[in-house]
């Protein structure tokens, strides 16, 4: 009798990463993180959900444009499923990217998870971003929580204590847990006073957390430079506006008082591990 495959976050089983535009995606940080992975890992789309079932087209309107041959084309607000192969481990990573649906959330999550099951997914990682009272000049906080007790034990996570309105990310997490899948949720905190997308510093923070979670180096490309330019731009804004500048200083003082310094032993160890993974990857491609 063949044993059932375990639902754990292990290097030999596919993992699904999901992010959704809208309420769960402050500064577009989460969806930009998935788009980045799609590009650098050469993901190929394998499926999509019928938007007719899940979207109010007066809320999320289709776009009309011209193709290369000059004909008109309508693009509908759907959810795409793509598959990438992580270059170091060879693990399949399924990327689910869409707009938060307007209706039938339970059916929507069932369809996403049915597709995940057909691709042998053992773990579901939802990626989101929220607006928070955090300073832009400090590292972007990324929290990780899980409803799945074995995942919490494996990764040293806490259960979420949040109570209140939820988005499709929260519902998908709950439904994944109901199926016994390993599941966790990543959230980046985007400074609310610079909420307009893009938010490259938050995107970079999410990608670094995904890198640690999967044990897989992610080529960051121009993102570090874009994050530095973004921070410099907000520094200039705060310098020109006295009220914003004073508010940022208050946030910085609160952050520095509550948190341990970023250069803690754990942070240094994590950064060194990232460096070693990148170096090993570079040596292997030489």
Could you give the order of the helices and strands? EHEEEEEHEEHHEHHHH
- Let me know the number of strands: 9
Q: How much strand content do the residues show?
A: 15-25%
Into which percent range does the helicity of residues fall?
Answer: 25-40%
Shape: globular
**Helical run tally:** 8
Low-confidence stretches: 1-5
Q: Residue-averaged pLDDT, rounded? A: 88
Structural class: alpha/beta
Q: State the distance separating the first and last CA atoms.
A: 45 Å
**Sheet with the most strands?**
7 strands, mixed
Strand sequence of the main sheet, in spatial order? 2-5-6-1-7-9-8
Radius of gyration equals 20 Å
Characterization of this structure:
With 286 residues, the chain is α/β, with parallel strands linked by helices. It is 40% helix and 21% strand. The longest helix has 20 residues, at 265-284. The protein is globular and about 55 Å long. The model is unreliable at 1-5 (pLDDT under 50).
Quick synopsis:
The protein has 286 residues and is an alpha/beta fold.
Strand and helix map with partners:
Blueprint: E1 15-21, H1 29-40, E2 44-49, E3 63-66, E4 72-75, E5 79-85, E6 92-99, H2 105-118, E7 123-132, E8 142-145, H3 149-155, H4 168-178, E9 182-191, H5 200-214, H6 223-240, H7 242-258, H8 265-284
Parallel strand pairs: 1-6, 1-7, 7-9
Antiparallel strand pairs: 2-5, 3-4, 5-6, 8-9
Helix pairs in contact: 1-5, 2-4, 5-6, 6-7
